[in-house]
Amino acid sequence: MFNPLGCHSARNMIRIEELPCPKCGQNMELFIREGMLAVEGRCDFCGNIIATGTPAEEVEHAAG
Length: 64
Ligand SMILES: [Zn+2]
Fold this sequence. Notes:
By secondary structure, the chain is α+β, with helices and mostly antiparallel strands. The chain is built from one helix and five strands; from the N terminus they run βββββα.
């Protein structure tokens, strides 16, 4: 998988979460650090973009 941040930032642990796209509901992979997007998230299905810094919670709730 493409990881633009590499894997050497041990102090700033990034995890990958699959969350449903707020727009189309398809799962999208998001890079989460400290509860928010570390990297801009882009939906492969509808092209929806979630900005860096958006709280992961917000994405989950938006999908409701
Ligand atoms: Zn989508």
